[in-house]
Amino acid sequence: MKRTPLILIPGLLCDSLLWASQVAALSDIADCWVADPTGSDTVKTLAAELLDRSPFAEFSLAGLSMGGYVAMEIMRQAPARVLKLALLDTSARQDTPEQSERRLALIDLARRGRFVEVSKLLLPALVNSARSSDPQIVGTIQAMARNVGEEAFYRQESAIIRRIDSRPHLKAIRCPTVILCGQQDAITPPSLHRELADGIDGARLVIIENCGHLSTIEQPDEVTAALRAWLTD
């Protein structure tokens, strides 16, 4: 059976470990490529670099959190190349001033030699409180942060702070789209995903119970099932 080309974009301080369960479980129907959104400090350039490096001419596209910001920029730059779109635990909105201030505070902390503390400070917002002490989840989050590293963290935060408001562009998305988030997502709550789903014609909204922001590692089976349905519909 021919497999669907699928590009997966990780979020802030995340790498291929974020999508490991999905890559393995969808291997029968998807030829997966996990992008590396760390090489630039603007979302626009990150999207252009991904398009240039992509092993596929056309592909289905999924992005989580910051990966969703890059995915929405790809939809502006090369919509004809995207067969299907999945936006997970993300938002079409720009940062609020308060959100940007929190990001700048984390950058300052890291520049003062305390980068290792960043993922620990972010942890309560990244997963549902019931799973915040799960050693496998915590270990994965900390490993991804180490893998991404301090310099890439600065570039990613800068790109996130400077991203545009994607809401006016949602109506231009025409490919089959699924919007997915955890019910307990503290960073991008379900209301922001309803906004995304309302803005994209025909988009399907999936909300996963007992799940926080990093849905792919907190509830991997449920996320994989939703992505399988999206790919095979």
* Individual helix count: 10
Helix content: 40-55%
**What is the name of the CATH superfamily?**
Alpha/Beta hydrolase fold, catalytic domain
CA-atom Rg in angstroms: 16 Å
Q: For the report, how would you describe the main beta sheet?
A: 6 strands, parallel
Average predicted local confidence, pLDDT: 97
Total domains? 1
Please state the oligomeric state of the protein chains shown: single chain
The CATH architecture can be given as 3-Layer(aba) Sandwich
Present the secondary structure layout.
Layout: E1 4-9, H1 20-25, E2 30-34, H2 43-53, E3 59-64, H3 66-77, E4 82-88, H4 97-114, H5 116-126, H6 135-148, H7 150-161, E5 177-182, H8 190-199, E6 204-208, H9 215-218, H10 220-232
Parallel strand pairs: 1-2, 1-3, 3-4, 4-5, 5-6
Helix pairs in contact: 2-3, 4-7, 5-6
Question: Gist?
Answer:
The chain has a 6-stranded parallel beta sheet, with helices on both faces. The protein has a single domain (4-95, 157-232), classed as Alpha/Beta hydrolase fold, catalytic domain (Rossmann fold). By secondary structure, it is α/β, with parallel strands linked by helices.
Characterization of the model:
The chain is α/β, with parallel strands linked by helices and about 230 residues long. The protein has a single domain, classed as Alpha/Beta hydrolase fold, catalytic domain (Rossmann fold), CATH 3.40.50. The chain is about 50% helix and about 15% strand. It has helices at about 20-25, 45-55, 65-75, 95-115, 115-125, 135-150, 150-160, 190-200, 215-220, 220-230; strands at about 5-10, 30-35, 60-65, 80-90, 175-180, 205-210. The chain has a 6-stranded parallel beta sheet with strand order 2-1-3-4-5-6, with helices on both faces. Helix 4 packs antiparallel against helix 7 and helix 5 (about 115-125) packs across helix 6 (about 135-150). The longest helix has 18 residues, at about 95-115.
